[in-house]
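Single-chain item
Fold in token form
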Amino acid sequence: MNKTIQDSPLLFLEKELRLISQDALLIFDTKGIIVDVNNTTARIFGEKRGELKGTPFIDLFSDPVKANNAVEQVFDTGEVKDCELVIETGDENDTIVAFNISLYKDQTGKVTGAFATGYDITRHKREVLELHHLQHYNRGLIETSIDPLVTFDQEGIILDVNEATVHATGRGREELIETPFADYFIDPDKAYKGAMLTFETGEVRDYELVMKAKDGTETVVSYNASVYKDQAGKVVGAFAAARDITERKEAEHEIQNLQHYNRELIEVSLDPLVTFDQEGIILDV
């Protein structure tokens, strides 16, 4: 056998066959000692190929115990999938690599080691972490509101609600999410029209609806809603906030009743009646 193939199979693949991989490739023997690595592996670890060969695989990572478990597992079961290992760089920019490892055999079928393919998932992990932080932050913003807040898609289907909405409707988040926004109002047609109007005009202001809770309680609310977009600027849903105006509507109704009553008192009199202010200006007759 060609000595290059025998001693440095990955080097042979790169130099002779021009098979260049963007992923880290390495081979270690049955004792976990590295036999060969490709150039990508050397770059990721910041070492020369010759410096990595002959070193224990587990010594390359911040958690050698986890790395050793992966080595033992591959020889016990034949493979390891998506084993995440961290390469310490001495600063805050540690590299996270996901390894798939399988058995490496000679021409006779004898297991002589293991072949590991690693791909750098550092950026992906950071994006996932950032997404979790943003989701937690957004949830915090939603839950700090004492008013019911709802997001729904362009078909009027609820995507998310806050605790105030749960309290106002008497239904759990699981009951509300993925159900029609319009179903929780006395006049569902008006509620649906309001939801669709949001997407037509971009926003809706002071849209009055009567919310009906699970126990039958009715609450007059005034909705303000606006669309929200993804990073590409595409409208993906609407955000709606409801303000309980039940007391205000009752007060307005009471004022109207009093005004009507006062008018009746004036009109039933057979004598001329006049009201005027402190400057003698007539207010009513």
